[in-house]
Amino acid sequence: MFASNPKPRPLVNRLAHTQTPSNFPVVNREGVLIGEQIYWNPATVANPHGCIIGGSGAGKTQTLKAIAWEVSKLVEVAIIDFHGDQELPGEKVYHINMTSNSGINPLVINLDQEGGGPNLRAIELAMLFAKTLRLGSNQQGKLLDAFKHCYFRRGISQESPQSWLKVPPNFSDLEALLEEMAEEDKEAEKLRLKLSTMFEYGIFNKTQPPYERLTRWNLAKLPPQLQAIAGDALASQLMSHHRLLGESTLRTVLFIDEAKELGHSKALDRIAADGRKYGLGLWVASQSSRHISKDVLTNTFTKLILPVDSSELPLTARTFRFSEEAIANLNPLESLVRFGKNANKVNIVPFYQRNTP
């Protein structure tokens, strides 16, 4: 699933530093241009995570695409695209839908011996499904047992880390198991029916292709519940992969527009908390900060505020420490940019104005 990557050169050696005004520390003409004289330099900020908040028509998507495009010139970029509008030049795009050849396997195991294995992944998935599909406690427990049994049938056990290297099961295994269980268990039949739409789409049964230097996963054709499960699986796999590679300067940045589609994903919380250590950055965008977990917001050093709906003004002002008046006076593609304690107002250079091949 992951292309073999050469050991990255430290970003600090790839980005030439310039002296910057004391009130705005990240100004680097060879970094990532946000707008005017404001640059984002992943080698100098406290962490490589970013957050963009903006209402409909504010320029949020164009801002996120612009930053992703510039970042892709420095490190690898992965994009989880819920609306199908994040395309970039030179990308490798996987369209995940009923008719595509590519899929996503949520049952891929985290190979970290101290924090991975089939049992942990089964627990994580059972909790995710319970929240996303509104399963009852009995159904959640039965699904947990089913996940564990799917691993068992493939010869994968928590006690044998060597077995984690075997080909993991996918949702074809889960469907077959639930059909067997349903013959004698009414609860298993109810659970199978609850998951029938997922099985019908088949996206979790197909081969998952590898990440490349600039990879976009287009989930636009999936219903919201499947989008959430697919997006969480991709984010979780990225974090697990980077943990195994060990501590590093920035290797990869994950970009997600409309973060509300993922809910308050535990996978995103882990990236925000620990990704910097392992060379993984996270940029999320949404119309409201309420769609982004407290852990992600707390651990995000760079924050961009574009115009928001008037109903969001009080919350946005409190969350990002700007005045309501300053936010209310923003025009589309105007942003209040905060790097830690320092802030400024900037006119965004959107993606459509960037020099692209």
Word description of this protein:
It comes from Synechocystis sp. (strain ATCC 27184 / PCC 6803 / Kazusa). This is Slr6007 protein. InterPro entries: HerA_central, P-loop_NTPase, T4SS_component. There is one protein chain. With 357 residues, the chain is an alpha/beta fold. It has 2 domains: 235 residues, P-loop containing nucleotide triphosphate hydrolases (Rossmann fold); 84 residues, no CATH class. The protein contains 12 helices and 11 strands. It is globular. The protein starts with 10 loop residues before the first helix and ends in a 10-residue tail after the last strand. 45% of the residues are buried. The N terminus is likely disordered.
In a nutshell, what does this entry contain?
This protein has a nine-stranded mixed beta sheet, with helices on both faces. The chain has a two-stranded antiparallel ribbon with strand order 1-2. It is α/β, with parallel strands linked by helices and 357 residues long. It has helices at 11-14, 60-71, 118-133, 137-153, 171-182, 186-194, 196-201, 224-245, 266-274, 294-298, 313-320, 324-328, and strands at residues 32-35, 38-40, 50-53, 76-81, 92-95, 214-218, 252-256, 280-286, 302-305, 334-339, 342-347.
Q: In the residues, how many domains can be counted?
A: 2
- Number of DSSP helices? 12
The residue ranges in which pLDDT falls below 50 over 5 or more consecutive positions are 3-28
CATH topology of the largest domain: Rossmann fold
